[in-house]
Amino acid sequence: MKILLLPLALCFLTLSSFAQNFPFGQATYDDLEFDKNKIDSNANAVVLKEFGTASIQIDDATGQLELVFEYHTKIKIYNKNGFNAANVVIPTYKDDSRQENIIDLKASTFNYINDNFAETIMDKKAVFIENKSKYTRLTKFTLPNLKEGSIIEYSYKLRSPRLFNFKTWQFQSDLPKVSSEYLVYIPGIYNYNVSLRGYLKLTDQKSEISKECLRINGVKIDCSKISYLMKNVPAFVEEENMTAASNFKSAIYFELSDYTSPNGGKTSYTKTWKDVDYELTLDKSFGAQMKRKDLYKDLIAGITKDATDDLQKAKAVFAYIKKQIKWNNYYGIFSEESVKKALEIRSGNIADINFNLIAALSAANLDAEAVILSTRENGTLNKLYPIISDFNYIVAKVNIGDQSYLLDASEPLLPFGLLPLRCINDQGRVINLKKASYWIDLKASQKAVTSYILFGKLNDDGKLTGTLTTHSQGYSAFNRRREIKKYGSVEEYVEKIDERLPRIKILHQSISNIDSIENVLTEVFEVEFTVNDGSNNKQFYLSPFFINAITKNPFNLDERTYPVDLGAATDERISINIVLPEKYELLEKPKNMAIGLPNSGGKYLLNTTFENNTLSLNQALQFNNAIYEPELYLYLKEFYSKIIQNQKSEFLLKKVN
Prior knowledge:
By secondary structure, the chain is mainly β. The protein has 3 domains: 43-208 and 229-268, Immunoglobulin-like (Sandwich); 273-441, C8orf32 fold; 448-655, Jelly Rolls (Sandwich). It is built from 10 helices and 35 strands. It has an 8-stranded mixed beta sheet with strand order 5-4-8-2-1-10-13-12, with no helix packed on it.
């Protein structure tokens, strides 16, 4: 068996001592008294022990090889905030012909009462199944009789027909773990590439030969018996602005490289991109769909009749596909309905829609290609060798002159050339039916840009009236348009804004370019809100930070081991001008501020003035990078802390006699 461990280089040791699964139902006084300060003083629950084993066996009922995975864990709950550890969700795979099954599920809660452990066994009726998607179902249960100080324990066996990825083992979760161990038995006829992801190192790894672990048609096969151990594993804490947690949690991954049948025939699963290009080109759900430009032969002239150049043609085709086919919310790089059927029924998955887009662009004599990728929540790709199952999304790429544009026709409110943020994830692979495939960076082509402009007047009754104008571009405009479209009317959308802003009353509104997605979205609100009750207008405080005030720091860890990924650069500007009714003098005001991030990564500028009886505030918050590496985390944390502290200050105004 060939093992590739990245980023660690670990050697096999031929040892005979392996840790074994621990007995179920034997809670101990040491479990009860475990001091969480040894691993995490802030923990609400701690995994005391976790053990798993996986092997390939023959299913007696079908005679087919299957993966058998067994899992067992014991968890100490310290307080009510740790009760969530007792809510267990086990995802399993299913399709039309095969599925994974959970069997031998056991779960108990142990409470220490009158110097003895009392066991409460979970009723099997507490287990229920949820179909999450077409290919995923969830086994869910909650352990019973929870109390502060409870010890919970559960185990199960999973039987799976999926041998390609063997079974991933996650050392790291949202709970700290005292001990996490995985024991695998891999038959010598299977050769897996194995990778250790995450920043934590294994505490120990052991390997030896397990004789005759499997017999196929009378042929005895030896196994590699390998254990992976990690102790004192810190909890993985998810924060805002990150891609899939699976990219960063410490875990062991297996990917099948090749298989040698007992009679000597060898099948290789680690392919080159040349192999993959050839297979995708011939695949009836991929290459065959890209070629269906004939479907648009009689339509394309009408679609592009007003276009004066190739760019206008591409925009016309893009707009047409967005209107014609509605996304059914399924991902995938392979067509489910076929290009023709999706066009007929006006519905399809991501591949159905974007293969239609590629076909139509090709019919317009434009150079169109496919880009397969992995979405942000799906994780990053292994680029050492192609694994098609890692890709879960496809978009179109059209080349016009010396410019290329990435397009996804599944979102009607996206402008030409702007991908949904879910697609902005490292790199994608460009598939061309006539040329070799290649990697392309997936970067946001536009920033998220927002500007707020308020012109107001403070009246004698303490109320401020004025006009608030908001201009949105790029991802900001897309998000706002999507929010508007959630409601039945613009009036309903404004009503909801009014409800969320209790201090501010919207008297009148005007929103332009809701459907003109290539243009700036502009919202104009006539507003009124109370600064003071009018009883003490000789001297009063006025906070200018009532538009998108920053009150909470999104970064609270002492250390972050994974990048801050915003998806796109952002630029937010706020301009406020408030005319006061009579002569006032300024006693206090927020400090002017100019702070920046290293390497021109971003800045915050604040300038406040009081001239000619007018209060003015100009603020700019810019993040020039989409991604900030972990070494910049503490700079970002301090950056926000300074802004929050300064925004606690206010104007103090006193009327001049």
